[in-house]
Amino acid sequence: MREDIRAGVSNLKMLINGQGVTSAQNLEVINPCNEEIVAQVPDATVTDLDQAITAAKSALVGWSDDEALRKSVLLSIASVIHENQEALARALSLETGLPLANTKDEVGMAAYFFKYRSKTVVPVDIIHDDERQRVQVVRKPVGVVGAIIPWNAPMMIASEKISTAFAAGNTVVLKTSPLAPLALLLLGQLLADKVPAGVLNILSGGDVIGKQMVADPRIGMISFTGSTEAGKAIMASGGATLKRLSLELGGNDPAIVLPDANPKKVASKLFWGAFYRSGQICAAIKRVYAHESMYDELVAAMAQLAAKTTPADAFDEGALIGPLANREQFEKVKALLERAEAEGGRVAAGGKALDQSGYYLQPTIVSHVDASNPLVREEQFGPLLPIIQYTNIDDAIAQANDTDYGLGASVWSDDLEQAEAVAACLQAGSVWVNRHGIVMPDIPFGGFKHSGLGRANGDVGLDAYSELQTVSIAKPKPAEA
Ligand code: NAD
User: Fold this and answer.
1) Ligand 1 neighbourhood includes 177 CB (under 6 angstroms)
2) Where does 226-276 show beta strands of DSSP type E?
3) Which of 394, 415, 433 is the last residue of a domain?
4) Which candidate among 54, 132, 146, 404 keeps its CA 20 to 30 Å from the CA of 227?
5) Which atom of ligand 1 is nearest to the CA of 206?
6) Which of 391, 414, 433 is the C-terminal boundary of a domain?
């Protein structure tokens, strides 16, 4: 089985101008479930990038002004993804360690993004249309969009970017994460004869190529998803060519549990809001604030769920969570755990790495940790959750907002009116009540503060990939007509 899966991702090439392309150098891809090298992929050079941008620029002609062609291509991409769901999910599981059930869902969502955008009609806003004038706002493509992708959900994130860029009439040069290039290179291979040459170019490479993309004046917009640190660097260097930017960055989402919430009822949703995909989601629950009246009961219920969720190999039947996706992340999460324990945090469940190869850490609940601890203040991005006790709701809101992040936040209660009132006080791009982390192609998504710039998805997401042009026409006076 594993050999079959590896064979499916051997000799993958980059997609440049409709052709499969190797590079002068290679990157190794590691399976986080056993730390074996599972594939070598091209490591894009500056020459590869130059060819991709040149191709993307020429491909704008005949693409930007043909909405019918773009719709049919978007629909055919959705079908290709759907037909190859199993192969794409396997590649994704192999490189991220995510259970196959999770990656099948991700690939399914990716197809859905393309289907959704195949129905997008680029709108025209009529501001005035009377006897004196017609003033309208039309949307023009930005040109070549540079898409830069992280390792944690590459198929879904790339699909949001490619589908929206295409719907708005742009062409795309996409760079995968060096840690998770397989599924996207496979996608490129599957799409080579489905998308006009040059319209979509997919490169695998590291940060250096990302920086070159940001610096290149032929790229009009950078659509970036990744860490806040890299987002800030991109914003600073993009200034030189006044890049249009979409920045989807890190998060440290709080979940506030109100006193009336039933701990047994909310525990499972809170648990999976934090531990789905081993917590490696930008909008996962990363801190829980529980009222003192039910704090112990909630910690116990969450600990019970953590204790019975053992991480497993991505390809094991019934695996619910896998390992961390790479060594760097594994070490970072372990260090946060050690520091939290050293500074008084109590491990209510989990707390150990598995004694085997692979980056496995038990799902871990930490109670009684101080609000100043890095586990509360930083983005852990792993299966490690602090639960913090509060007495007064205003204090819980203040603590939830006391961060530079502002991606998502949630409130948990049976009293929807009160929950909505608390949600209204939270500084985050998405606030949820009795749910967390819902991302859909028609629902705007993005961050306050250092969690990002702009919004993806929905109509506002389309505008992010467009230049808005105001067309103002004076109509002749009746006597002049
Ligand atoms: P990362 O920032 O290290 O890398 C992301 C991508 O950017 C990679 O392709 C990398 O090669 C490239 N890159 C890094 N520095 C660059 C630079 N200066 N210029 C151009 N490109 C550069 O992030 P990661 O570790 O791959 O992903 C995890 C992070 O992504 C977490 O912080 C997570 O919260 C965030 N994330 C955010 C969202 C969202 O929608 N807000 C979604 C998923 C992940």
Assistant:
1) yes
2) 244-248, 253-257
3) 433
4) 54
5) 11
6) 433
